[in-house]
Amino acid sequence: MSTKTNNDIFSTIALAGLMHVEDPEIGLNVVDLGLIYELQFLEEEKKIVCNMTLTTQFCPMGESIVDNVTQSLQASFPEDAIEVNLIFEPAWSYDLISEEGREFLGR
Question: What burial letters (b/e) apply to 61-100, b meaning 16+ CB within 10 Å?
């Protein structure tokens, strides 16, 4: 699944930064894991809305991952307000992992 967005250029910048945010238990970044579902850039409001998920609703590192996603987006877009929404529909699955992520995981 690719990340849904309303601005491909800004999304490319955001995703490049998010490549440095890892799930510490898996050791793979949130982009290649397929955790970032949507990035919306509300230019008039100077706000970015990120809808993301976790590999499981009970992920013990969930709060830390969400905080790191927020910090990464803020670093890439320092003038904008950042809103990160944790959603679980659709549920995450291994099918969402990128080809690079599968190679990293040896699958």
Answer: ebeebbebbbebbeebbeebebebebeeeeebeeebbbee
